[in-house]
């Protein structure tokens, strides 16, 4: 006798939606987490200004600009600023000993802020819409500063195992018997990306 519970199906807007036990538990757990966060009355993630305040070598303004820049290059609305911050924090420490990197970043941020002020009368991090900021980024996309941040973010952000669950990545499977019996054909991540 098979003890597995078959997935539940329902029709929603002309489509058949199948809800597996795993999907239900995942969704209900996230809902409970959200309700818990709302009931405490506090935000679970600090504001951008608070996150950027830790930039001792580059300064909070540069840190805030780098954070907004990182989000604009790789936008994922469901992912908190703190995960982006983990990818850009190493710049502050490296700039204490690497003068060339410090110059590249400070001059790159200054150029971006000048460009934003010429078009929007405010620094880049304060330009209100993502579309307006992305238009500014197209202007500098071939420069060394933009390419450095973009290149480092690919590994600094996406190699962080803490963000993998947001994309449906469960991590290494070899020590758990491989992917064959662990949902190798699940593509739920595609809807979450």
TrEMBL record:
PROSITE patterns: TAT. This is Twin-arginine translocation signal domain-containing protein. It comes from Aromatoleum petrolei. Signal peptide: none annotated. The lineage of its organism: Bacteria, Pseudomonadati, Pseudomonadota, Betaproteobacteria, Rhodocyclales.
């Amino acid at each position: 006798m098979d003890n597995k519970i078959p997935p539940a199906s329902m029709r929603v807007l002309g489509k058949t939606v199948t809800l597996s036990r795993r999907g239900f538990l995942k969704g209900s757990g996230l809902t409970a987490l959200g309700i818990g966060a709302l009931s405490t009355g506090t935000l679970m993630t600090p504001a951008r200004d608070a996150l950027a305040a830790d930039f001792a070598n580059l300064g909070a303004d540069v840190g805030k600009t780098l954070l907004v820049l990182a989000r604009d290059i790789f936008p994922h609305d469901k992912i908190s600023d703190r995960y982006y911050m983990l990818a850009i924090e190493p710049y502050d420490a490296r700039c204490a000993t690497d003068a060339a990197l410090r110059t590249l970043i400070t001059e790159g941020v200054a150029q971006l802020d000048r460009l934003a002020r010429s078009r929007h009368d405010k620094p880049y991090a304060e330009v209100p819409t993502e579309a307006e900021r992305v238009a500014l980024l197209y202007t500098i996309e071939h420069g060394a500063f933009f390419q450095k941040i973009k290149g480092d973010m690919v590994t600094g952000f996406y190699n962080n195992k803490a963000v993998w669950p947001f994309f449906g990545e469960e991590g290494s499977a070899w020590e758990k018997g491989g992917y064959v019996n662990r949902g190798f054909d699940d593509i739920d991540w595609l809807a979450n990306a």
